Amino acid sequence: MTLPRREFLHLTASAGTALLAPRVAQAQAYPSRPVRLVVGFTPGGAVDIIARLIGQALSERLGKPFVIENRPGAATNLATESVVRAPADGYTLLMANTAAAINATLYDKLNFNFVRDMAAVGGVMRGGYVVEVHPSFPAKTLAEFIAYAKANPATINMGSAGSGASDHMAGELFKMMTGVNLVHVPYRGAAPALADLLGAQVQVMFGSLPASIEYIRSGKLRGLAVTTSARSDALPDLPTVGDLVPGYEASGWYGVCAPSRTPVEIVDKLNLEINAALADPKLKARLAELGGAALPGSPADFAKLIAEETEKWGKVVRAANIKAE
Fold first, then answer.
1. DSSP codes of every residue in 184-212
2. Which of these three, 243, 275, 305, is where a domain ends?
3. 119 and 134 share a domain?
4. Over the stretch 139-149, which tens digit does the pLDDT of each residue have?
5. 134 and 233, same domain (yes or no)
6. What residues make up the domain containing 93?
7. Among 128, 134, 207, CA closest to 167
8. What are the two backbone dihedrals, phi and then psi, of residue 77, each rounded to the nearest 5 degrees?
9. 18 is a domain residue
10. Does position 154 have pLDDT exceeding 90, yes or no?
11. Can you give the CATH number for the domain in which 80 is found?
12. Long-range contacts: 51-59, Cβ < 8 Å, 24+?
């Protein structure tokens, strides 16, 4: 039997609505139980702090606990893989950061493809690093540092949280764009590297702003410049590296991702609530205290950032021939 066109279209539309209705209802009911937000680092670091801030905000807005689960190891790859393999129902999320973009090239054999296997939900914060030296170091400005490094090649030790860590990558990009020869000294984490910088065992670091601000303010370290494209409100007297090295920019980003097949309605709901939380003056002020700025936007905006950062840091990994530890 041939249906009239109008009846056929009506039935087709009804079928589409019937298929969509359960997904909409699922999103409206979400979350109905606690949500896990997985962090690929130990408690107390920048990623963990930011995860707890946005997790608390989402708990308050959505009425269910957002539980932080720390799964350190393999430069965040263990945490990422655990979320990739989790049910795509919105109840297991990842607090992603710059490491995801770096690891895509740094590691030859990963059991996942971050861009393909993770859905970008929303950005939370973007912040930079600060070029910092021990107060005994002769250079007092970035220009003096570059001049000294060129006059004394391979004599300045640059500490980092490890080979391929985001602070290491910021330093490698600086080396590429200035032509200076710094000796990379990798540590097992940013804290021991910073401790040795404070003890003058290494001479320079591209330290994270949250970890470095108080040491610079107290005079225990000397800040030379920030790595972001604009000056930091947390250290307003410091210039940007880009003021002296045109085109240089290095910043860390933090945001929420979910398994790739998570229903778009749940992704959109989470994105809406993240953006609403980031508009709260109290949270914005707390992020500023950490040396960063809120990173609102759509899931597509965050996905674009991840793709761009993956390409950018992939070029640095290949050019500097950096290998995973």
1. EEE-SSHHHHHHHHHTTSSSEEEEEHHHH
2. 243
3. no
4. 999 999 999 99
5. yes
6. 34-126+251-319
7. 207
8. -70, -30
9. no
10. yes
11. 3.40.190.150
12. 51/95, 51/254, 53/124, 53/283, 53/286, 53/287, 54/95, 54/124, 54/256, 54/274, 54/277, 54/283, 57/277, 57/280, 57/283, 58/270, 58/273, 58/274, 58/277
CA distance 321 to 107: 12
Residue where a domain stops, chosen among 216, 243, 270: 243
Residues in the chain, total? 325
Do residues 249 and 129 make contact, with C-beta atoms less than 8 angstroms apart? Answer: no
7 pLDDT band, cuts 50/70/90, is: low
Q: Are 165 and 177 within one domain?
A: yes
Give strand pairing partners of 160.
Answer: 186
Is there a domain that residue 105 lies in? Answer: yes
pLDDT tens-digit series, residues 77-108: 999 999 999 999 999 999 999 999 999 999 98
272: Cα separation from own chain's centroid: 20
| Tokens, residue 4 | 């009239």
Asked if 224 and 176 sit in the same domain, the reply is: yes
- Is-contact 9 40, C-beta < 8 A? no
Packed helices 5-29 and 264-278: angle between N→C axes, nearest 10 degrees = 50
The domain tally of the chain equals 2
Task: Report the relative pairing of strands 35-39 and 157-160 from DSSP bridges.
Answer: unpaired
User: Which helix (H) or strand (E) is 163 found in, with range?
Assistant: none
Query: Looking at the structure, do residues 229 and 151 belong to the same domain, yes or no?
Result: yes
pTM (predicted TM-score)? 0.85
43 Cβ contact partners less than 8 Å away, ≥ 6 residues apart: 70
- In the chain, the amino acid numbered 9 is L
Say which CATH number the domain at 204 has: 3.40.190.10
Judged by DSSP in three states, 167 sits in helix
Compute CA distances 263 → 19, 26, 256, 268, 290, whole Å. Answer: 13, 9, 15, 9, 33
